[in-house]
Design a protein that fits this description.
The complex is a heterodimer of chains A (166) and B (368). Chain A is mainly alpha-helical. Chain A has 2 helices and no strands. Chain B folds into 2 domains: 230 residues, no CATH class; 119 residues, no CATH class. The chains are: A mainly alpha (166), B alpha+beta (368).
């Protein structure tokens, strides 16, 4: 039990206790407190910065997402407008075509009517002229046939001959 | 590749030479110490490394550097004694390097002798020389080699950490620079990997000053003990010092123990009543065994390191062959480097276990 290696010396125990206590209080007050405080503050500020960055990132993400949505909406609207325009165009064309057709048909019909009328008029005219010409010819012929008294007599003779008084 | 190898070889050689020169000094030192301690032993006898090693790892009343031409060169340290006649102080040089109890120093009508680095007061009329019958032990409050080394380490620790703290008080909570950038990772290591893990987020802050102090106190003293001449004192390998540190941990653990901690000691929940009664003494012994293990672990590890290095160097004198230095010096160098790791590791282990014990004392258990 007297091995000096494992026999604690009272003097050294007292000195170690004293020295350690002094060291502890000095360090606790003048070293650990400011150091730990500074480290903690710095960590907090770093964490805040990181959080802010994360937040900014999220905001950016949100912003870009809303931009995207806006763009999509605009695109959709444009498409809608184009579609509408196309429909309107088609409708207009169809309507125009229809109107044109109707008009053409009407024009053609009226033309046909006019032609018919003209034709009738022409035919009537022709008939009238033919009649007039016929009368004139007949007149001339008659005038020719009855120019002399002889001829008139012959005619009357023939006509009298023809008359069969039975 | 080759250049690198060359540089390594050069560094190794230089280190070996440095070690060898200190070895030479050690040579003389150890031989004369031996000579001092055993006056009657002749130079030709077998070399016994044990007293030399014991002398090196034990505490001393003066700081012995080397011997030259039979004269010991050492720094005297103050001797402070508490006796029946009050406080007695004188320098250790008064003993004239006598460690055999032959040289008497007279103060305040008392005669003191130093025997094996212990100071005794001779009874009235007793002759010089140590014997249990003729001497009475005195309360020795001397600034011994260990106390002096400890004070030195305290100065270094205070310097380092005041400087570190100064960096933050001056610049605010900025990134560390200079000495602070070296110490901050260690402080964070103690905080994050020792305190937070073992004590818990909520309560660790209260114990941070203690854990940091104990960590750096042990580490700096371990390192200082590895430096020959300047340090070389075996502070953390002294059982009195480790005892004090372990007692601090024990006190802090037990004064902070909550109801559940004491409940687990005196009335183990969830056990049948006879087992509960049986567990009381076991748990109570556990309260003492935990710090006891702390004390022995640190003491044994650090002392063992010193013994191994000194034993390796003693090989040269055991075999009386200087060429053995080619073997023992690289080995001693290897062990010394290993001791650098052990110095950190033991500081870590002591702090970690202290935090663990404190953590179990303050933990709030969920009731299963």
């Amino acid at each position: 039990m007297n091995n000096p290696l494992v026999t604690p010396e009272l003097g050294l125990i007292i000195w170690s206790t004293l020295v350690f206590c002094i060291l502890f209080f000095l360090l606790a007050k003048y070293a650990w407190k400011p150091i730990l405080k500074a480290v903690k503050e710095r960590e907090a500020s770093i964490e805040n910065a990181l959080n802010a960055a994360e937040q900014a990132k999220n905001e950016m993400k949100q912003l870009s997402a809303s931009n995207e949505a806006l763009l999509n909406q605009a695109r959709a609207e444009r498409d809608e407008m184009l579609k509408e325009a196309r429909i309107t165009k088609d409708k207009m064309i169809t309507e125009a075509k229809l109107a044109a057709n109707t008009e053409a048909e009407r024009i053609i019909a009226s033309a046909r009517e006019a032609i018919q009328n003209e034709k009738l008029a022409a035919i009537t005219e022709l008939k009238n002229q033919v009649a007039t010409l016929s009368i004139e010819i007949a007149e001339k012929i008659l005038k020719q046939e009855l120019s002399t008294a002889e001829k008139q007599k012959s005619l009357i003779d023939s006509a009298v001959a023809e008359i069969n008084l039975n | 590749m080759l250049k690198n190898y060359f540089v390594k070889t050069l560094v190794f050689t230089v280190f070996s030479l440095i070690s060898f020169t200190s070895l030479k000094a050690e040579n003389h030192d150890t031989l004369t110490t031996k000579h001092d301690e055993n006056h009657e032993t002749s130079e030709n006898s077998e070399y016994d490394p044990i007293p030399v090693i014991m002398h090196h790892i034990a505490d001393a009343h003066d700081w012995h550097f080397f011997d030259y031409n039979g004269h010991a060169f050492s720094m005297p340290l103050p001797i402070i004694l508490w006796t029946d006649n009050g406080l007695v102080t004188f320098m250790s040089s008064e003993f004239h390097h006598d460690n055999s109890g032959e040289h008497i120093v007279e103060r305040k009508d008392m005669r003191f002798i130093k025997f094996n680095e212990k100071i005794y007061s001779l009874k009235i009329g007793a002759p010089a020389g140590f014997s249990y019958d003729t001497t009475t032990p005195v309360l020795d409050l001397s600034i011994t080699k260990n106390v002096f080394s400890m004070l030195m380490s305290v100065v270094i620790i205070l310097f380092v950490f005041f400087k570190t703290a100064g960096h933050y008080t001056k610049n605010g909570a900025v990134a560390p620079k200079g000495i602070a950038s070296f110490m901050e990772p260690l402080i964070l290591f103690v905080r994050d990997d020792i305190a937070k893990v073992n004590i818990g987020e909520k309560k660790y802050m209260k114990f941070m000053p203690y854990l940091l102090t104990i960590f750096f106190f042990i580490w700096f003293n371990n390192l200082l003990g590895l430096i020959p001449w300047i340090g070389g004192a075996n502070v953390t390998g002294n059982i009195a010092v480790t005892l004090v540190l372990a007692i601090f941990t024990m006190i802090i653990t037990n004064i902070n123990g909550n109801k559940e901690y004491w409940g687990h000691i005196f009335w183990m929940p969830g056990a049948p009543v006879p087992v509960k009664i049986m567990l009381i003494p076991i748990e109570l012994v556990g309260v003492l065994i935990k710090p006891f293990a702390l004390m022995v672990r640190l003491f044994a590890n650090i002392t063992a390191g010193h013994i191994v290095v000194l034993s390796l160097l003693s090989l040269v004198f055991i075999f009386k062959n200087a060429s053995l230095g080619a073997v023992s010096v690289p080995f001693a160098l290897f062990i010394s480097v290993l001791e650098l790791l052990v110095a950190f590791l033991q500081a870590y282990v002591f702090t970690m276990l202290s935090a663990l014990f404190i953590g179990t004392a303050v933990a709030e258990h969920e009731h299963h």
